[in-house]
Amino acid sequence: MTASGRVVAGARTFAADVVSGFLAVIHSSFALLGLAVAFAAIALTARPDLRHAGEARLMGWLQSRHVVQAQAAPAPDAALTASLTEPVVAAAATSAAEPPIAINPRELPREQAAVAYWLSKKYRVAPEPVAALVNEAYDLGKRTKLDPTLILAIVAIESSFNPFAQSAVGAQGLMQVMTRIHTDKYEDVGGHLAAFNPVTNLRVGVKVLQECIARAGSLEGGLRYYVGAANLPSDGGYAAKVLAEHFRLRQVAGTRAAASAQARPVLSTQGPAAAETAVPSAALPAGTDKVALLAGA
Predict the structure, then answer these.
(1) Is the model more confident about 147 or about 36?
(2) Helices in the chain by DSSP H: which ranges?
(3) Which residue in 58, 93, 148, 186 has a CA-CA distance of 20 to 30 Å to 279?
(4) Residue pair 196/164 in contact by the 8 Å Cβ criterion
(5) Cα–Cα distance between 20 and 196 in angstroms, integer?
(6) 3-class SS at 171?
């Protein structure tokens, strides 16, 4: 073998010895590591106090690292935070203020439940949304000092509880309010399309009814203003229909006065000059049908 061949063979032998030694060291290290892990596991199992102490130290170290990272993080921009949270807060407030669209009638007080079931059966509408409207009418009645059964009677006569009803002259929604005339009342509740929101239309209609009664000075006169017949010789029997339905609802609710139980009152729908004449049955002239109108009346 030449000198160069012996050098190459020696180099190969040296490299093989180094690799073998390295592998042996690694193998021994893993064996020692395995023994150490096994010993530690046995020790921690036999000594729970050591395990708990180790866990406490590890948790303390992790918490200290978390605090350091939190202090190092830049503070969020206050304006950006406010701009992001304001819509959420506003949406939550709106959601909290908005009444439910439907309620189980069994969850209502007995009087309201009786009215809701009666209206549901008579006008062939689902009891749950009717229950929500009955509940809202009673709430409005407390705030406005109006009989809630009167409010519901107007809804019944005006739209038969159809929230999407519209008359030939443009009266819309449950209470057939003239949306184009009372646009100011819808400005804060979403604009004129809110007329088809049942609760919104109910609230606006009650406002219009209050104005009509205040202007006329009486309930019956207010109903004549509400239907747009204040300056006409007849309201076509509108007030009589509303008051008759009001009377029936009070019976259903069990809230009528003792005097009302004896005899049904005679309801006059005539103007002041014709208070002694009989109630006419003719329809209103064209253009005066259920307009919930004050302007120009």
Answers:
(1) 147
(2) 3-46, 48-72, 78-97, 110-123, 127-144, 148-159, 183-186, 198-216, 219-226, 238-253, 258-262
(3) 148
(4) yes
(5) 88
(6) strand
Give the 3-state secondary structure of residue 166.
strand
The per-residue pLDDT for 25 is 82
Query: What DSSP designation does 100 have?
Result: P
Question: In the structure encoding, which two tokens stand for residue 90, read together?
Answer: 């506003």
Detail the DSSP E strand segments found in the chain: 171-172, 177-178
Query: Which residues are CB-contacts of 120 (< 8 A; sequence separation ≥ 6)?
Result: 105, 126, 127, 130
| pLDDT beyond 90 at 161 | yes
Q: State the CB neighbour count (10 A cutoff) for residue 100.
A: 13
pLDDT 10s digits, 19-65 = 888 788 888 888 888 877 777 777 767 766 666 677 777 677 666 66
pLDDT at site 270: 40
The answer to whether the CB of 280 falls within 8 A of the CB of 236 is yes
10 Å CB burial of residue 136 (0-12, 13-18, 19+) is buried
207-256 pLDDT tens trace: 999 999 999 999 999 999 998 888 888 889 999 999 999 999 999 998 64
Q: Tell me what the pLDDT averaged over the chain comes to.
A: 76
Cα–Cα distance between 159 and 188 in angstroms, integer? 24
Phi and psi, residue 171, nearest 5°: -70, 135
What residue has token string 């609230």?
Answer: 203
Beta bridge partners of 177: 172
Q: What per-residue string of b and e applies to 198-225 under the rule 16 or more CB within 10 Å gives b?
A: bbbbbbbbbbbbebbbeebeebbbbbbb
Does residue 128 register a pLDDT over 70? yes
Pick the closest to residue 179 from 292, 289, 295 (CA basis).
Answer: 292
**Residue 294 CB: number of other CB atoms within 10 A?**
17
Report which residue type is found at 214.
Answer: A
